[in-house]
C-alpha cells in the first residue's frame, strides 16, 4: 500500500483560494500518475484533476477548468492542487491518489476512481 498524506484543506469564503498538498512516504511520487478527487456525502467520488508521471500531462474536470492547477515538486515528493476562485459547490472531502497502472498514459482515464491507492482525505468547505 502506497502512503499518501493530504494537507491544506480548511474553511474559505467564496472567491478565495486554497492549496492542497499530497505528500508520499516510502515511494517516489514522480513514478506514478497522481490524481485529485473529491466526494460529498451521498455522491460518488469524482476526478478533479490528474497529472501523468512521465511527461506531466494534465487533465481537469470541466467544473474546475481555469480555476484549479495541478503541479508536481519532485524534490519534495509532493503534488499540489492550487484552487482559486472557490465556489460553494467545491465543498467536499478532497483525496489524492496514485494510479497503480504504472504504464497508463491516458490522463483522462487516470482521473477515474478505479485502480488507485488513496490518501485519507482533507475537508474543503467554501462558505460565507
Globular, elongated, flat, extended or rod-shaped: what is the shape? globular
CA radius of gyration: 13 Å
Strand content: over 45%
Q: Spell the H/E element sequence.
A: EEEEEEEEEHEE
Structural class: mainly beta
Summarize this structure as a short list of keywords or feature phrases.
128 residues, mainly beta, seven-stranded mixed sheet, four-stranded antiparallel sheet, 46% strand
Structural features, described:
With 128 residues, the protein is mainly β. Helices cover 3% and strands 46% of the residues. The chain starts with a strand and ends with a strand.
Brief rundown of the structure:
The protein is mainly β. It is built from one helix and eleven strands.
Topology:
Blueprint: E1 3-7, E2 10-12, E3 18-25, E4 34-39, E5 46-51, E6 58-60, E7 68-73, E8 78-83, E9 92-99, H1 107-110, E10 116-118, E11 122-126
Parallel strand pairs: 2-11
Antiparallel strand pairs: 1-3, 3-8, 4-5, 4-9, 5-6, 7-8, 9-10, 9-11
Amino acid at each position: 500500500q502506497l502512503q499518501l498524506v493530504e494537507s491544506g484543506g480548511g474553511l474559505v469564503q467564496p472567491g478565495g483560494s486554497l492549496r492542497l498538498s499530497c505528500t508520499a512516504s516510502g515511494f517516489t511520487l514522480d513514478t506514478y500518475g497522481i490524481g485529485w478527487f473529491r466526494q460529498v456525502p451521498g455522491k460518488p467520488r469524482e476526478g478533479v484533476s490528474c497529472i501523468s508521471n512521465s511527461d506531466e500531462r494534465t487533465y481537469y474536470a470541466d467544473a474546475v477548468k481555469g480555476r484549479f492547477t495541478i503541479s508536481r515538486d519532485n524534490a519534495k515528493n509532493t503534488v499540489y492542487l492550487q484552487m482559486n476562485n472557490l465556489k460553494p459547490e467545491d465543498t467536499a472531502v478532497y483525496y489524492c491518489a496514485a494510479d497503480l497502472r504504472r504504464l497508463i498514459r491516458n490522463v483522462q482515464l487516470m482521473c477515474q476512481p478505479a485502480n488507485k491507492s488513496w490518501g485519507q482525505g482533507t475537508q474543503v468547505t467554501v462558505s460565507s
